[in-house]
């Protein structure tokens, strides 16, 4: 039963974990907007989600279990996203590549999508809870 619940929520869990990681990256970019020679970073969310779910579903490393009763970890199995540097549209004299307009836009977009993922997960859990309750 727990395996079925875990599998049903696996995709949303991966998406939320990657959204949280992206939030940290973007907030790091914003925090270092005035740091000389800081290079803004980001990662392709869709590609990393595909990679993380493939690793979770059997394409990646798995933990060794000594009993059939052991549960899976449910995390992203240590799959770190492939970071990429942003190419600035206008270079700065101090070598910093953070463009605040782009970073704020990406941060807001990621925040809204994170909230949407939470709502999807909540709706899914609510549906499962209703399906498990007896009819009245």
Automatic annotation (TrEMBL):
<dbReference type="Pfam" id="PF00460">
    <property type="entry name" value="Flg_bb_rod"/>
</dbReference>
<feature type="region of interest" description="Disordered">
    <location>
        <begin position="56"/>
        <end position="96"/>
    </location>
</feature>
<comment type="function">
    <text>Structural component of flagellum, the bacterial motility apparatus. Part of the rod structure of flagellar basal body.</text>
</comment>
<dbReference type="GO" id="GO:0030694">
    <property type="term" value="C:bacterial-type flagellum basal body, rod"/>
</dbReference>
<comment type="subunit">
    <text>The basal body constitutes a major portion of the flagellar organelle and consists of a number of rings mounted on a central rod.</text>
</comment>
<keyword id="KW-0975">Bacterial flagellum</keyword>
<feature type="compositionally biased region" description="Polar residues">
    <location>
        <begin position="64"/>
        <end position="78"/>
    </location>
</feature>
<dbReference type="InterPro" id="IPR006300">
    <property type="entry name" value="FlgB"/>
</dbReference>
<protein>
    <recommendedName>
        <fullName>Flagellar basal body rod protein FlgB</fullName>
    </recommendedName>
</protein>
<feature type="domain" description="Flagellar basal body rod protein N-terminal">
    <location>
        <begin position="9"/>
        <end position="39"/>
    </location>
</feature>
<comment type="similarity">
    <text>Belongs to the flagella basal body rod proteins family.</text>
</comment>
<dbReference type="InterPro" id="IPR001444">
    <property type="entry name" value="Flag_bb_rod_N"/>
</dbReference>
<dbReference type="GO" id="GO:0071978">
    <property type="term" value="P:bacterial-type flagellum-dependent swarming motility"/>
</dbReference>
């Amino acid at each position: 039963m727990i395996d079925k619940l875990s599998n049903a929520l696996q995709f949303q869990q991966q998406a939320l974990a990657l959204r949280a990681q992206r939030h940290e990256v973007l907030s790091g970019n914003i925090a270092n907007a005035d740091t000389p020679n800081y290079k803004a970073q980001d990662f392709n969310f869709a590609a990393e989600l595909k990679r993380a779910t493939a690793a979770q579903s059997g394409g990646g490393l798995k933990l060794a279990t000594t009993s059939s009763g052991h549960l899976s970890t449910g995390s992203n199995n240590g799959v770190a996203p492939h970071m990429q540097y942003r190419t600035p549209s206008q270079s700065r004299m101090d070598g910093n590549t953070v463009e605040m307009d782009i970073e704020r836009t990406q941060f807001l977009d990621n925040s809204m999508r994170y909230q949407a993922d939470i709502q999807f997960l909540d709706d899914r859990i609510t549906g499962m809870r209703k399906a498990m309750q007896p009819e009245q």
